[in-house]
TrEMBL record:
Name under which the protein is recorded: Dicarboxylate carrier MatC N-terminal domain-containing protein
Keyword Transmembrane helix belongs to the record: yes
Transmembrane segments: 47-70, 91-108, 114-132, 144-164, 176-195, 287-318, 330-347, 368-395, 407-439, 451-475
Alphabetized UniProt keyword annotations: Membrane, Transmembrane, Transmembrane helix
Compositionally biased spans, kind Low complexity: 211-277
Lineage, opening ranks: Bacteria, Bacillati, Actinomycetota, Actinomycetes, Kitasatosporales
Region (Disordered): 209-277
Amino acid sequence: MSPELISILVLVVVFVIATTRSVNMGALAFAAAFAVGGLVADLDADGIFAGFPGDLFVVLVGVTYLFAIARANGTTDWLVHAAVRLVRGRVALIPWVMFALTGALTAIGAVSPAAVAIVAPIALSFAARYGISPLLMGAMVVHGAQAGGFSPISIYGSIVNGIVEREKLPGNEVVLFLASLAANLVIAAVVFVLCGGLKLWARGAVTEGDSTAGDPTGATGGSAPAAGSSAPAASSSVPAAGSPAAEAAPGGAAAPGSAQLRTRPAPATPAASPEEARLTPARSATLASLLALVVAVLVFDLDAGLTAITLAVLLSTAWPKDSRKATGQIAWPTVLLICGVLTYVGVLDEMGTITWAGEGVGGIGVPLLAALLLCYIGALVSAFASSVGIMGALIPLAVPFLERGEIGAIGMIAALAVSATVVDVSPFSTNGALVLAAAPDVDRERFFRQLMVYGGIVVAVVPAAAWLVMVVPGWG
């Protein structure tokens, strides 16, 4: 058995154990990276740790720390109520506002994870407060970021168009942008309907103190507690990722092996007290810090994680009482989960497993079948690794049969771009991990499984749909 195949089988075993036993998947992945990297790939410790996502570690810690301070001093409550006033009580509009906001940020040049890091904590705080499915809100934020992610002036768009130019392939910047925009807009609309969006529309405009919230999770089949309720906060003890806790999958069906959850009525929407509506010095400073984070990331191109943790330290120094509450709310189980899995994926990359799989597909003699498999490889690997890195590897692999003219290059590149980025809702990708870490007052284990199930559905469905719509007609 080849080393590459062994490494893939070990990854399957990690998923099986994490799904059936109460063991954090990240801890399992670290052990697997040590075993496979040392015994199979003959890597030393430096080689194994080469795949450790240090930048993502800092982003997860920094952003969750900063927004934990914002929750502790009431800034997120103030923002949530301000958002309700902005849309005149139409809570159903908020997910679309978040979709448009993250799309606009990435379209003008923000890196997708940076846009999600800025918007997701506020969006998910709103979801917890007003009984909206966290899966719906998180998906809208991520798909919004990808909808604008391939504009001609965006980071993703510039990189992919540069690869196309370097490989001397025909390209079309507008088609690439519109393909990603349309795909993510359609997916967002479907998620909105399936995860309770129609119930939000039926609720109509809400006012402070409204008690007609309805089912908070729509199709997910559970209930998210409102902020400030007696439900455990994000800092409370949660099961390690991978435990067999009962939960409902998207669409209302219970996850395999779990009990079907009953839908509970949402808690009453709390009225804004005079204290919540007041801008205290701590809240004003926190709002200024959030604005500084946006400017630092978008204008000065500074690292989102390092900037967030620096701002959090400054706020902690000025208001240490809020800091003591916030440090316990850093999403450490999520950090372990994501960093462990991505370290193992880094070992796969170091030992050539990803290249091995891509080259095997590229050698297939049927161009349309090879194109479909490349889209699936892009989606599957990108769910755990860098989307841009995967596109940079897969587009050159597609060059031989694109040069023969049997497949349209423009459509193929657009299909690869969509397949490799739309799966960023996976909790193992940077964007999905940020959404998971940012959600307050949720059963994080259950939310992790929901994101994993939803990400699996996207991986299974979207590459085939993108191939059928963009590749089969032979665009370009």
